[in-house]
Design brief:
Blueprint: E1 7-8, E2 12-21, E3 24-31, E4 37-45, H1 51-69, E5 79-85, E6 88-94, E7 98-100, H2 101-107, H3 114-132, E8 148-151, E9 156-158, H4 184-187, H5 193-209, H6 224-227, H7 233-242, H8 254-267, E10 324-328, E11 331-333, E12 340-342, E13 372-376, H9 391-438, H10 464-479, E14 485-490, E15 493-500, H11 503-517, E16 521-528
Parallel strand pairs: 15-16
Antiparallel strand pairs: 1-2, 2-3, 3-4, 4-6, 5-6, 7-8, 8-9, 10-13, 11-12, 14-15
Helix pairs in contact: 3-5, 3-8, 5-7, 7-8, 9-11, 10-11
Length: 535
Amino acid sequence: MIDPNTIVGGRYKVVKPLGGGGMKLVYLAEDQRLASRLCALAEMIDTFTNADTQVQAAAAFRREAEMLAQLSNEHIPRVYDYFSYQNRHYLVMEFIDGLTLEQELRAAGGRLDPARVVDIALQVLETLIYLHGLEPPVIYRDLKPSNVMLAADGRAKLIDFGIARHFQPLSNATMIGTQGYAPPEQYRGKVEQRSDLYALGATMHHCLSGRDPSSEPPFSFPPLRKLCPDLDAPLAELVDHALAYDTERRIPSAGEFYNQLAEIKTALGSGAVTPPKPAPPPLKLAAVPRPAPQLKLPLGTPVATPPPRQPRQNAPGQAHQMPTIVLGTGEILCPKCRQRIPADSRFCSFCAADLMHFRTPGRAVADSDAMTRVIHDSGQSTEGEGVWADASVLRARRVARGRRALLIPVIVLIALFTAGFIAMRIYSYLVQSGQDAVGTGEASPSGDAAPGGEAGPGSDGGPVSDNVRLAALRHALNSEGYAKVHFKMDGDTIVLWGTVPTIADRLMVQSTVFTFGNIYSIEDHIKTEDGLAGP
């Protein structure tokens, strides 16, 4: 943490910390070159150990800072400056004197008046109309109460565009957003304009009902009228409409959301609503030049770069969408619904299953060495980049496929063993039935010599029932091809010796002895010819 009165960047004097956590802290600072103008200084620290990854993250930070500096809207703080020093990156923004919506919600006891919620939502929608009207559209991605700043003059502003995510290698960066407020498609690394409308609906649901979605399973929003029976029905239906799981069933645009909410405000008697400012011609964001190539560390080490990809053309009538930047380690199958989801997800975006219940204790969720940079191209990318995956991800996938291939013989062996066991149980039942009917049987063969020169079963004139049972065992072993296996009876224990081809045959012999011997234990001295197991 930076101490007060520290000069950062040779220009900005730190006054006090304002908040933040993890890899990002925000300070109140004074611009010493512009009459001590107050500003918000955001410091982001990267912990990458790989030089190439550091360079890529810093370049992404500069490109996004340049993009934010071009935004001009009364509900978005202005970006004044940005700079980097070693592994610390700074963004200088307009200071907003006020409280966040989260702080106001907490001060009000967890719920806000519907008229207040509608007023704030209309201002947020004005901002989204501006962002979605840019060329290419800017998707905010992280709308929640803590990112809505309520200024002293009554204006609501969107803060924290998530630029710090480039420096958090172990975070759940596949889903650039917050659990509970992010829509299902955002968990899969895909966003569009209606994703912001879902997050706004989740924020309004929280403010109107007092139910915090971040502490509940994702996508589990009860209808507002069930939680707030006295709430205006059109308002509740509009919020529920914005929270539809399927994007095609949501409100189609921020402009349509604004118009419907404005009609509700008028019906509530909260006064007339000023129509949103006419949208100017789409502002085309200037292309930010890529930084000049820099030396890689260590020097002389070639850096493999992915081949260039041609931009993919949009289908007729399809809205242009910005690529979503994803830091992740690939995809996994949900243990519950078997759908493909990002490997670093906390919840399944299909069935909302809590994946922590299925993880092995003590096992890391993601390996930082396998971290890669993936761009999901959901439209025409301004940089013409498609999907990238480094060699470590592909190697991990090949290993996973190899392991699945090894499981098939094991499963087949288990199935054969189970089938053989069932067959022997049936054969045992038939033999026992024959004994009950005849009452006696053949004497046990005496050709099995026990270790140490002891005679085999049947040579000591034992009970007839033992002779019949052991004769049946001898017959069963011979019929299964285990003539080299010998045995003798020692009380309630059968002693085994001899040789079998494999460990699977050894297990089969043991199962046969338990089935036909009708004893409590065995003493196994059998050896395997492949040398993999034995006494």
